[in-house]
Amino acid sequence: MSEHKNILQRLVTGADRALWQLGGVCLWLCNLCLLAMLSLTAATFLLRPFDVSVWWFWPWTMVLFIWLSFFGFFAIYVRLKDVRIDFLVKRLGRAGNILSRLLSDAVGAGVSVVLLQQAPTVMASAAGFVEGALLPWGDELPRQALFAPLFVSSALVALTALTDIAKCCVGLPENTAPLHPEAAS
């Protein structure tokens, strides 16, 4: 039985590490979106005295802002940068800690599942293109591309919540910010 539990712990720890690393990828994507947004805005200000206006800067800035927000949804969740009430949970003792852990995971997974259930409706109603967000070959960005990061992040948040529930079931501790305990070993 102990060997079986050890194998499960290793599998769950591996999934947890992979999700943590994907959170890092999403953080990088957020930073790249922010850098591109700031670059486009700076270029707008710098070109203005020369009476030059690049009309597609604004639509791409808005697209990048939306993507930054949606990639950040998963990054904030998995990297534990969301609002936490640890001081209260610690007063509840071990049972309260486990209960709050499972409850927050259930809520995280539940919200993500609701978002994913809405994906077909959102994608069907997001017809057309983002006006002015030109692609290198001249077409405009399809409106559905705005929402893809939201649904990817939602799926990853649900996976993270389910992984943490599995960690709890096999006796692994909850991750704590700012350091990921399994990554430190």
What labels would you give this structure?
71% helix; 185 residues; two-stranded antiparallel sheet; 7 helices; mainly alpha
Question: Can you walk through the features of this model?
Answer:
The protein has a two-stranded antiparallel ribbon. The chain starts with a helix and ends with a helix. The chain has one domain (2-180). The chain is mainly α. A hairpin with a 5-residue loop joins strand 1 (129-134) and strand 2. 71% of the residues lie in helices and 5% in strands. Its main location: membrane. Belongs to the TRAP transporter small permease family.
Write the SSE topology.
Elements: H1 2-47, H2 57-78, H3 86-91, H4 93-117, H5 119-125, E1 129-134, E2 140-142, H6 148-169, H7 181-184
Helix pairs in contact: 1-2, 1-6, 2-6, 4-6
Counting DSSP H or I runs of 4 or more residues, the number of helices is: 7
Given helix and strand content, the structural type is mainly alpha
Order of helices and strands: HHHHHEEHH
Q: Give the overall form.
A: elongated
For the sheet with most strands, the description reads: 2 strands, antiparallel
- The span between the termini is 24 Å
> Number of folding domains?
1
Organism: Salinicola corii
Keywords: Cell inner membrane, Cell membrane, Membrane, Transmembrane, Transmembrane helix, Transport
Subunit structure: The complex comprises the extracytoplasmic solute receptor protein and the two transmembrane proteins.
GO molecular function: transmembrane transporter activity
